[in-house]
Automatic annotation (TrEMBL):
Chemical reaction(s) catalysed: alpha-D-glucose 1-phosphate + UTP + H(+) = UDP-alpha-D-glucose + diphosphate
Keywords on record: Nucleotidyltransferase, Transferase
Protein name: UTP--glucose-1-phosphate uridylyltransferase
Gene3D superfamilies per the UniProt record, alphabetical: Spore Coat Polysaccharide Biosynthesis Protein SpsA, Chain A
Domain Nucleotidyl transferase: 11-268
EC class of the enzyme, as a word: transferase
CDD domains named in the record: UGPase_prokaryotic
Native species: Roseinatronobacter bogoriensis subsp. barguzinensis
Length: 299
């Protein structure tokens, strides 16, 4: 099995939880300070050695492509104004040697269908899937961990974390098997958003996966699942029942940026960790806590 050089980013969703902001702007371009959510996922993939980025887009998602495309007019204006540092930053959003492919999902038929739309671009190669809603921060990010694990176990591998009992109904939950001495977890099944009573564990699968092309054959044969959509979780469960799925624990900090509070949390934490204005931002937060009326526009 070849090494992994391809990553799929399903970015065709409507982002209804962030309306009206996402009426005209893709949710993947919502900024964490000055960088869109999807760019964090792209940087994570590139850091793991990915050289081909495959974006599965939908209607009104042209702006995602524009963000990763060259903008020669903007670069020229920045250079003319002596802002070469900003010009270099814009130019290097996609590093040299990394290419982008954009595939259209003709209608919103589910995450599984979005991944299937990438099949012609993926070909017969293994690949990772990254959901931009899941922002990861840390020294060892899950895509790197998945790529390294795949080199030892060339089959479907999920990045997972334990969640609180009240949150199991939000995620795909594992039916875990034996955990090896190296920390690899055998996955006997995956249930999408079970009730706490029906959940077989509190181990949840998040938006980072590695697959072999076998997943496409499974997706093509799937009947619509929950919501009348082709569910990626159903395809993973099918492979798990054949003993072809493993999982590894996610060592990074995860922010659910598909949720408003998770998005706000990510903004605060990223701001606090910034070496330039982190201390100033912390002082602002402390001031607001001590004098809450100072942040009230009507006060």
């Amino acid at each position: 099995m070849s090494s992994i050089t391809k990553a799929v980013f399903p970015v065709a969703g409507f982002g209804t939880r962030f309306l009206p902001a996402t009426k005209a702007m893709p949710k993947e371009l919502l900024p964490i300070i000055d960088k869109p959510i999807v760019q964090y996922a792209v940087e994570e993939a590139v850091q793991a050695g990915i050289t081909e980025l495959i974006f599965v887009t939908g209607r009104n998602k042209r702006a995602v492509g524009d963000h990763f495309d060259a903008n020669l007019e903007l670069e020229s204006q920045l250079l003319a104004k002596g802002k070469s540092d900003l010009r270099d930053m814009v130019r290097n959003i996609v590093p040299e040697g990394v290419s982008c492919i954009f595939v259209r999902q003709p209608e919103p038929l589910g995450l599984g269908h979005a991944v299937l739309c990438a099949a012609p671009a993926v070909g017969k190669n293994p690949f990772v899937v990254l959901l931009a809603d899941d922002l990861m921060q840390g020294s060892y990010l899950p895509t790197q961990a998945l790529v390294e694990a795949f080199s030892r176990y060339p089959h479907t591998i999920l990045s997972v974390s334990e969640v609180d009992a009240e949150d199991v109904s939000k995620y795909g939950i594992l039916k875990p098997g034996v955990t090896g001495d190296d920390g690899m977890i055998n996955v006997d099944g995956l249930v999408e958003k079970p009730s706490i009573e029906d959940a077989l564990s509190r181990m949840a699968s998040f938006g980072r996966y590695v697959f072999t092309p076998e997943i496409f054959d499974i997706l093509r044969g799937l009947a619509p699942g929950a919501g009348g959509e082709i569910q990626l979780a159903d395809a993973i469960d099918h492979l798990a029942r054949q003993g072809k799925v493993s999982a590894i624990l996610n060592a990074a900090k995860r922010y659910d940026c598909g949720d408003k509070f998770g998005y706000l949390t990510a903004i605060v934490d990223v701001a606090l960790s910034n070496p330039v204005y982190g201390a100033q931002f912390l002082a602002l937060l402390r001031d607001r806590l001590e004098r809450p009326e100072s942040g009230n526009p009507d006060g």
